[in-house]
Each structure stands twice: as structure tokens, then as C-alpha cells.
Amino acid sequence: MDFEQSQTKTNLARAFAGECQAGARYQFIAQKAMQEGKKNIQMLFKTLAKNEMAHAKVFWDLIAKNSKEEQKNIEIKAGYPFEDGELKEMIKSASNNEKSENTTIYPSFAKIAEDEGFKEIAEKFKLIALVENDHFMVLDELYNKIKDHSLYQSATQYEWKCGHCGHTQLSKKSFEICSLCEMDNGHVELTFLGNKKCCE
Ligand SMILES: [Fe+2]
Ligand SMILES: [Fe+2]
Which one of the ligands is nearest to 57 CA? Predict the structure, then answer.
């Protein structure tokens, strides 16, 4: 299958645009979290935004690598999420978008790439879908815990860590004010989300 005529080329271009926009949306969410004093959510979304831009670069490079002709402009027609609102709602829509990327969009792009004979591209779609699944797990848990007012609670003893000064405290409920640096719980590290380390 000629890459120029393939559906895979269009799908890569759509994926590239989608990742750029996810990166932008996550930076907007990070800004909103910062304005609300939630440093931990800000840091989480900055990391996610960085991941999405890295995915965009993978797709960009695959287009460049597989094109025989020099690309000047690629036309695509696609819908992209545009959901604005409160921080909690934006986290929910981010979680939904991650889910549809990893359960529907990228698996179908991978299948088409395989059918069209582009093995390496199919592999990259699958690998990125796995990352989007991790993103979904983190965001889904974050949203549910915010909704249930349980973000700073644990069923068992947990070592809560202040992301500002590094102080840790073992308990079922995180500190509201860090006893070392006196920052509020908007600085509590959220590395427990999705059972993954998600923040820097
Ligand atoms: Fe991504
Ligand atoms: Fe993602």
C-alpha cells in the first residue's frame, strides 16, 4: 500500500492533531489548578501535557519517515473535544477522552495500519494506547476521589508526602497543613493515583 494513498497517513495526521490539542487542554487544566492553589493537580497535568506532546512528536516523525514526497500541507477533517468548565468537569472530560483514545480510536488506527502493511506504525499506535490507558486510570481515580471528597483519604495507613518540603506523614488521612512547611494539602503528592508514579 502506497503511504500517500493510505488511510494510515490520514490517521497519523489526525492523531498528531489530537495529541497537540490534548497537550494544550492539559496545560489549560494545569493553569486552572494553579489558580485554585492545587499545585499537585497542576503538576500532574503538566506531566500529562508533556506526555501528549511526546506522542505528537512520534506521529509527526512517522509521517515524515514514511512520506516519499516532501509534505507541505496535510488536510484532515476531524472532530476534537471542546469541553470547558469547572476543574472537576475538565478532569472528567479528560478522563473520557483518554478512554476513547485507548479503547476505540488508537486500536482501530493500529488495525488499519496493520491491514495496510505498516507494522511499525501499528506498533506505535498500540504503545501509545497503553500510555493513554495509564492516563485514563489516573484521571478516572482523581475525578472519582474529588467527587467523593476522598482525595486525601486512604483505607489503610499511607505515607502522605508534601511535594513542597518533602515531609512525610503516615496516616489514613493526609495533613491539611504540612507540619513542617505549613503548606496546605494542595501540595500533597498524588503519586498514588492509578497505582502509578505520575508526578515530578
Ligand atoms: Fe497521547
Ligand atoms: Fe493521554
Answer: 1
